[in-house]
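Materials and Methods. Structural model of Lipopolysaccharide export system protein LptC. The 196-residue sequence of Lipopolysaccharide export system protein LptC from Oleiagrimonas soli was retrieved and submitted for structure prediction as follows.
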Amino acid sequence: MTTRRLIASMIALALAIGIVQILVWWLQPKRDNRMDAGPPRSGYTLHDFTLYGYGDNGKLSYRLQAPRLERREGDDSLYLNQPTFLLPPKNGQPGEPWTGNSDYGWVSAKGDELKLQGKVNMHRKAYAGAAAASIDTSDVTAWPKQNKVQTDAHVAMRQGTATMTGVGMRADLDTKHMELLNDFHGTFKPSAQKRR
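The predicted structure was written out as tokens:
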């Protein structure tokens, strides 16, 4: 009789474990299989390319060149390695374009926002009424249609004989209006023409 009770107890225990397992499978939330997919996959990859972005008026807003571009599936944004860029004056404004490079880049799906990531160097040649200028910083966000840029990183700017440094910058590249937001230091030497 003890053997029968032991066998009956084992069968009852096995049934109870089976019922509990079925309840766990039935009640647990469903897994999202996309979580197992790993990092985003590239929709396509380009090597040694040039990308042109145009404004609503059909004028060039920016030009990007890089050794590698990846378009990610799902968000249609573009990821760039070591891009060089050109940001021309908008709407026929006088002046020279800003050119430069960064370690990495990102372009929004609509092409209206750029992120120049890592170390960023920007340069503009001299033209009538404005000396040559350069900006050294990192992690710049640019809105090429408005020709505006900003960063929260350290900035060093040189234009003619003036040098300025600070942390955080907001700039309108067409109006030549620049704000350094924190820890500003500047040196403004007179030009050689004014000393005579």
